[in-house]
Amino acid sequence: MPSSPETTISVTRTRTPQPRPEDASLSFGKVFTDHMVLMEYEEGRGWHSPRVVPYGSLTMDPATSVLHYGQAVFDGLKAFRGADGQVRLFRAQRHAERLNRSCAALCIPEMDAGLIRRSFEAIVAADHEWVPRSPGTSLYIRPTVVATEVQLGVHPAHRYTYFVICSPVGSYYKEGVKPVRILATDKYVRAVQGGLGEAKTAANYAASLSAQRDAERQGYTQVLWLDAIERRWIDEVGTMNIMLRIGDEVITPPLGGTILDGVTRNSALALMRDWGVRVSERRISIEEVMQAGQDGSLREMWGTGTAAVVSPVGELGYRDQRIVIGGGQTGELTQRLYDAITAIQYGRAPDPHGWTSVVEAPAAAAAA
Ligand SMILES: *Cc1c(COP(=O)(O)O)cnc(C)c1O
Predict the structure, then answer these.
(1) pTM of the full predicted structure?
(2) What is the pLDDT of residue 229?
(3) What string of H, E and C letters represents the secondary structure of the chain?
(4) Is residue 22 within 8 Å of 130, Cβ to Cβ?
(5) Is the Cβ–Cβ distance between 161 and 145 less than 8 Å?
(6) How far is the CA of 236 from the centre of ligand 1 (A)?
């Protein structure tokens, strides 16, 4: 049972608002807004004191447990300013629920999912003016939970801090959707059954760095992860879910232990099913992919994730083989998914699944 939620999120506004960067200068995750959300957990008291406060440093004792044993989870979602000026969150409830599942995987006490969702709305309302206006830009929202107990024993902590920070981010595709080159690795693994692959936790990203560095040294952009046991079944690409189109079938590996349940993955599957595309969530081996690449039936391959929406794969390397996919161009279905998802996010298209929610500016800021 999650601890009983306090229903009000108090707001303390900054007295020193920072100048906002020009939209054209925005990249990813380098600039942060004026405010953040904080909330603490203590054993016996539960999660308490949710609040919006001025953005600032967290001070930590060097013996704080997260710094040693990595009991940390996060999530990532976005708010978009539409052509109509309205600011919309995309699938906030689903992100809140996933953060809780990540907490559960790391023995972190769960929060009230409704309260998490309202904390996203509260920070976007407080920093409403920070949601950039140019096409393709957005406000990236990063909720995080870390263990803050001061002790060096290895056990689940008795204290935690939840925080949410926000970063205005530039268009991922300033010059249109652009295919990447990926390298399938059988040397490194990302996750194994019984491990943490289903959780968005710091450890998974630390574990991915040397594989990513190796791929970059060989001239590739991202790693294609294979399963940890047979090193044969396709898992994920970089920090995205993977989809392939072979003939008229779209294939994505099933959830079930090692794969993160991506919100973009789920959205893409729902749209393709709406469109009558034949979609299979099934295991697919690297041999089948390389074979389909050679016989020409592999028409498209793309990653899905919040940062890019879709990331087309133009080239795939595995051992000493290399295949070019769809002539190295963005495929038709990949582009259609990108266009459809972004149209819903920016309020240009109807939202039949109810994925977006409008966040109003606070009355005082609207009047200013
Ligand atoms: C965040 C993430 C994804 C994509 O999830 P979205 O909810 O679509 O952003 C996929 N795989 C991994 C490993 C991730 O960390």
Answers:
(1) 0.96
(2) 96
(3) CCCCCCCCCEECCCCCCCCCCCHHHCCCCCCCCCEEEEEEEECCCEEEEEEEEECCCCCCCCCECHHHHCCEEECCEEEEECCCCCEEEECHHHHHHHHHHHHHHCCCCCCCHHHHHHHHHHHHHHCHHHCCCCCCCEEEEEEEEEECCECCCCCCCCEEEEEEEEEEECCCCCCCCCCEEEEEECCCCCCCCCCCCCCCEHHHHHCCHHHHHHHHHCCCCEEEEECCCCCCEEEEECCEEEEEEECCEEEECCCCCCCCCCHHHHHHHHHHHHCCCEEEECCCEHHHHHHHHHHCCEEEEEEEECCCEEEEEEEEEECCEEEECHHHCCCHHHHHHHHHHHHHHCCCCCCCCCCEEEECCCHHHHHC
(4) no
(5) yes
(6) 9
Q: Are 293 and 325 in contact (CB under 8 A)?
A: yes
Give the model confidence (pLDDT) of 45-70 as tens digits.
999 999 999 999 999 999 999 999 99
Q: How confident is the model at residue 173 (pLDDT cuts 50, 70, 90)?
A: confident
Segment 176-219, tens digit of pLDDT:
788 999 999 999 999 999 999 999 999 999 999 999 999 999 99
Sign of torsion, CA 192 195 200 202?
negative
Q: Which of 212, 239, 310 most suits a substitution to test ligand 1, by most atoms within 8 Å of the C-beta?
A: 239
Residue among 97, 240, 264 whose CB has most ligand 1 atoms within 8 A, to mutate: 240
pLDDT digit string, tens, across residues 94-111: 999 999 999 999 999 999
pLDDT band at 364 (very low <50, low <70, confident <90, very high): low
Taking the alpha carbons of 99, 100, 101, 104 in that order, is the dihedral positive or negative?
positive
Ligand 1 midpoint to CA 302 (Å):
13
CA dist., res. 197 & res. 86, Å (int):
35
| Residue listed under structure tokens 């803050």 | 148
Ligand 1 center from residue 17 Cα (angstroms): 32
